[in-house]
Amino acid sequence: MFERFTKHARAVVTGAVEHAERLDAGSVGEEHMLLALLDREGSRASFALASLGVTGRRESVERSLAEARRRGGLSQADTDALAGLGIDVTEIVSRVEEVHGVGALDDDTSRRGRGRRTVRRPFGPEAKSTLEKSLRIALGRGDRSIGDEHILLALTARPGIAAEVLAEHGVTYGAVERVLGGGGEAKAG
């Protein structure tokens, strides 16, 4: 599948691995792909993100992703569903952090202190699913190769932390489609 990726899409995948390594994550997740997309310049996805005003709010995106990691990877939708059952995730996180320290529910904190890995991080199930979805989106649009815009569209189309954070910042599948389909100027990269 990677032979179908454009140079921009390959850069996103490579960047996601680098973000996972920098954050000492056990695997590459969709949040790392989102961070790598925010790093890009001169591509269709970077054009879409800039047009939707996200590139200037990177810190806000990073805070939202960190908060989701702090909740053990639960999305706000998951947190709301649990609240409907009478389970206060914020209270649980607070109690766990009182005993075990801040960030104790972060999926990746259990790996810290074990030394740096020298091997590449594997792609987690949600990241693999995002890449597969990007292929389906590209094929559905009649595109011969997978660009970083397809990865962005896949992140917005799948339920999860990345889609939720993007939606909080005004980036939805429909909004990205409108920006990318908006004319010749959207064909950057």
From TrEMBL:
The keyword Repeat applies. Residues 2-189 form the Clp R domain. SUPFAM superfamilies: Double Clp-N motif. InterPro entries: Clp_N_dom_sf, Clp_R_N. Gene3D superfamilies: Clp, N-terminal domain. Keywords: Repeat. The keyword Repeat applies. This is Peptidase. The lineage of its organism: Bacteria, Bacillati, Actinomycetota, Actinomycetes, Kitasatosporales.
